[in-house]
């Protein structure tokens, strides 16, 4: 009865998406979006993409949900302004026609895809052994599409820089985000103390098993970042000043290790980002370890936002 | 093949819903949410393509999966930047929309 489950799940995904758009308040919309992310996570599992499901749950629903929730609290008010700026009926109908047309064209295009589908599954499965990796997705991320992954790791650094640069000049080098009072009692205090050690172990585990099983640096790094955010919100730790050398080093360690490994490929292998045979697995593990640290640092800093007070 | 049909339709409908919300909704935060729904639809299309390309022992084609993982991380970074831009705009101008402001500082009708 797989068919029924899939139809039901697809309907729930669309229902959550519709709620996100139609919710009466911004807060309700963000909660709807987090629910949407978790339902999409289930869809990824049903589609056989467990690596993506982990990423969606950690980043798509979790990390994105946190920054949106923190923003919705600060963006209160403006109901009059919003209703004044909401387009009239004619624009609504035009937008509906445009969106409906695009959706219909996409649906027709997907249904018209060739059968059997062309793909690189066989090649990816056959050649993952050359890098010493059992997980074909990890092998594609580090080998075949290694350049994408390198650029993406650099994008995270630039995103953090862009977020920091939103601070007023006098705050540069200061401490990001609001200060949360220390929680001594209540569910948050308990959660921050109980979940933290377990979450740290799970985060490192997910990053480590990524070589052989679903998981990896992005998923593991996000879990580590989430644990730091939990401790921050519970008032147990304060964000470091962005002028701190340690923070900046943690942020660029991954991309730097990746770049160095890329240049090592020019010296020892066939070219930039070509993993030298025999050394591939240990080099990839080193890069992944550094990337896990940098992903965790970047995501935590993106959640914390621009500096708001002096160090 | 039949297993991907519900998700193909959901993905296309998500893109439509997201696009509609992006155009119609005025509040910047709602636009960011709608944009993420649109992105979710595009990613799900990759999921459908990956599932259709399953074979050789892989439950889904690893190449589209890897691209979606990259995409999810970049989408998060873009969302974080958009949210901070919206907050900064709100901090400076007090506005919650990007409607063109009239002379008096209030958005045009």
From TrEMBL, chain B:
| Topology class, membrane | Multi-pass membrane protein
Q: What residue ranges are annotated as transmembrane? A: 6-28, 35-54, 66-87
Which domain of life, per UniProt? Bacteria
Provide GO CC annotations from the record.
plasma membrane
Keywords on record? Cell membrane, Membrane, Transmembrane, Transmembrane helix
InterPro entries recorded: CPA3_antiporter_subunitC, NUOK/Mnh_C1-like
Q: Where does it localize? A: Cell membrane
Signal peptide from the UniProt entry? none
Question: What family does the database annotate?
Answer: Belongs to the CPA3 antiporters (TC 2.A.63) subunit C family.
User: What is the name of this protein?
Assistant: Na+/H+ antiporter subunit C
Q: Which organism is it from?
A: Roseicella aquatilis
